[in-house]
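We modelled the chain as a single entity of 295 amino acids. Its sequence is:
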Amino acid sequence: MPNRENGRTNRIGRHLPTSGGLKNTLQKAADQKCETIQIFVSNPQQWADPTPRPDAEAFVKSKDELGIHPMVAHAKYLINLASKDESQRGKSANALARELVVAGELGVDFVVVHSGSHGGEGEEKGMERLVEGLDSARELAAKFAGGSRVAEPLVENSCGAGTQLCSDLDSLASVLRRADVRCCFDTCHAFVSGHDLSSPDAAKETGKEVREKLGDGIGIFHLNDARNHFGSRRDGHARIGEGKVPEDSWTAFFGELPGIPLVMETPYATPEVDADQIRRVKELVGGLRIQAGGL
């Protein structure tokens, strides 16, 4: 079991809905004892631009009072900066830019964006377009913001299905270096794409490899158990302890990766079950108490 005497250094939280208003989102975060949260700043299934929130200022003040950081947003699922279609790439860069701006207004630190798909034109071509798209989105965001704060984009590793990019550590590291960005490392995507978490020993070695190849390039983790088997390249998130990854593997894996925030994107259940998931993960990665000065 984790060493509770030393505490932990990874902040723990989860994705929360905003449908009931941002005040309600923060109440859920407080009830579940989240230390970091992820939200959507626009409809993830539509191209419509995000709109400024009238309660943005109050939200920023309240999340600071609750000590919730970092704040994370997930970009639209429609975005594909690596698309072989030029108009799709342009739409994607504009959409990401708009979300970076609105996220910044809400005090959000990171916006997670999928690495996308090359559409059959090869990984290198896709990676080149992804890098160009990230550059374009940041340039547009700076223009739209007019000097106001803009959130930082994080590229998410994929599960490697079809023509998806960045399912392996080397290609992900290459994009981070070339685009001068950091990543969101999803544990479910990693497991089903061939990064072994099936035992504590395997998870420890995988953690070492992730640390060696990505290092300071990791902004956050998406902590998700996997419904599908190791190497299946099939996405599907499960609650911690209910998927294919043994619970003690998480302790071994994150023992190699201290200090990086963890955000769960696991299925919602009752408020009690959701709160228990937060508590359980805190114990698995080092104990309930946060180590003073460790963040």
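As a brief sanity check on the tokenised model: The longest helix spans residues 123-145. The CA atoms of residues 82 and 287 lie 40 Å apart.
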